Amino acid sequence: MPERKPPTGDRGGSRFLSLKWKVLLTLGAVMLSVNGVLSWLHYQDLMTRFDEQRAETRARLAAQAFALRNEVGLRLQALAGVLAALDSVGVTLFPTSAGNALLRQHFDSYWPALQYGYGIDSLQVYLTGGEQLAAWTSSGGPEVQPTVQVTEVINSERATSWTNCSEVCTEYAAAPILSAGKVAGAVVVGSSLAEVVNSFQRVTGADLGVLVPHVGPLSEASGDEAFLPRLGLRAIPLSSMGSHRPLLRQLQSLPQTPPGPAHAYLSLPYDGRQFELSFLVLDFPAAASRPATMVVIDDLTLALVDIHQSVVSRLQGELLVSLVSLLLLSLLVNAPLQRMARTANAIPLLGRSAFAEARRRIAPRPRRLVEDEIDRLDEAAIDLSYRLETLERDVAAHAAVTEGMLQRISVERDFSRSLLDTAQVIVLTQSAAGRILTLNRYGRQLAGLGEEQLAASSFFELIGGDSLQVAAARQAVHEIASGDRQHVQLESILQGKGGESYEITWNHSRLAGQPGDAVMVLSVGVDHTERKYLAERDPLTGLVNRRHFQDILRRALVDARRSRRDGALL
Q1: Which among 65, 265, 87, 93 is positioned nearest to 163, based on CA atoms?
Q2: Of 179, 406, 543, 569, which shows the fewest CB atoms inside 10 Å?
């Protein structure tokens, strides 16, 4: 197992950041995100409420505009009815020249009061056939032509009012003239919508104008300040004079506006401000190509600025609270983190066996009302230092004992190695297959093998020459490896590297090992070549003796029987 290197101070270029700053930065990011989300939700809530309020305001402004116009119409109807009921001149004489002159004289006396006191711009009298009998208009004021409304008043004998917009917008009212229970004609009075516009601004604070179709060629409208070239309409009149006409010139088209009290609207930025325009369709004759449209202009800039300022103020307050909270948190965690850093810096001293110095640096708090995790960490570090110190002493003592044992083992190993190399016997170990694992020096001298040749040598090659001896050795090694026998003694001839033959008596035994280890066989061989030579020959003549002759004869007979060959004895 590879040795693990101890950690060093170099962390591969990584930068150190205090836990305090990690906590503060993380909490700061979280609080900033939360404040941003809360401010955004607050902004969305304000805008939703603002949109709901604007919807109510637009409906109220539309209703107010129509109510003011209807109020003017009803007032004109009442005035027309009063004028039609004045019977100081016989209405039967109206068609005659004298009656016409008398009618003019009659209304001439009222016209200044009507014009300056009631804001009447026109006064017309019609006969039952629709012919205009007399007319009074202010300087430059419009003249109404026979219309469907006049005919309807004469036929229905009921007063009515309507709006007619061409060059200017005028509210008209017509009332029937009754004589002897019959309709003798109709009185029509008209008043400009300027009063409606001014009253609307005074009541609501918003600006009101009327968009009417342009009459005449477009080339003549180039110098008209009220002309809106993109829409082909004229803006008349506006309560804020011409200040909003540049705003209306930014319009590309008008939204689809349903007739009646319903309205359409759009938002339009202009000159750094935000405006909301509501469009209301006025009543118009069936023969007209385009209706006149009232436009309500409401400046939303201040309201939107208040919303943005409210959101910004809330966000600033939340950020201030978050900053104060982080500062307080920093003050609260500063001392505990310093204690933890002191303990962390003292722990490496334990690895250098500076236990007393480590305990001095940790120095747990002597007085504490309530314990925390850092107090327990200090106590655990102190306890660890004592345990490590005791363990180090035990390890040192154990190391001394182990070193003594190793020295004794080394001495015994050297003695055993010297004994094996000095003993005049062959000592080898082999595997179950006969591969030589170890061989002492005496055995290598007899076999003529070097250290590098042992790995490729086999025990059965050493005793090669006699097939019977090799077969017997294989059988013995197999029985010992399989556990059938514990000890076998055999004799064989060892073939030296130079061709020498040695008579060896082998003692084969099984080496004990752990379960699962490979089987090893210990073979100890004793060289008795010289003793056998003296035992088989006569010491004087050197000839083989009777005993050796009988051994040779016995082996020859066994070989002849095994090979089924004949032989002869000479």
Answers
A1: 65
A2: 569
Dihedral, 160, 164, 168, 171 alpha carbons, nearest 10: 10
- Taking CA atoms, 362 is separated from 337, 340, 349, 385, in Å, by 13, 9, 11, 11
Cβ(209)–Cβ(225) under 8 Å?
no
| Sheet order of strands, 233-236 included | 227-228, 233-236, 207-213, 293-299, 273-281, 264-270
* C-alpha distances in Å from residue 292, one per residue of 147, 203, 247, 275, 285: 17, 23, 19, 21, 10
pLDDT band at 30 (very low <50, low <70, confident <90, very high): very high
pLDDT of residue 89 exceeding 50, the answer is no
Alpha carbon dihedral 445, 449, 454, 456, in 10-degree steps, equals -150
Contact 278, 300 (CB under 8 A): no
Q: Which residue has the tokens 């170099």?
A: 10
Which one is predicted more confidently, 415 or 311? 311
> Is the distance from CB of 101 to CB of 93 less than 8 angstroms?
no
Q: Which secondary structure element, helix H or strand E, spans residue 322, and what is its range? A: helix 301-351
Specify whether the CB–CB gap between 184 and 92 falls below 8 A: yes
pTM of the model: 0.56
Instruction: Identify whether the C-beta of residue 269 lies closer than 8 Å to the C-beta of residue 242.
Output: no
Rounded to whole angstroms, the Cα distance separating 178 from 87 reads 9
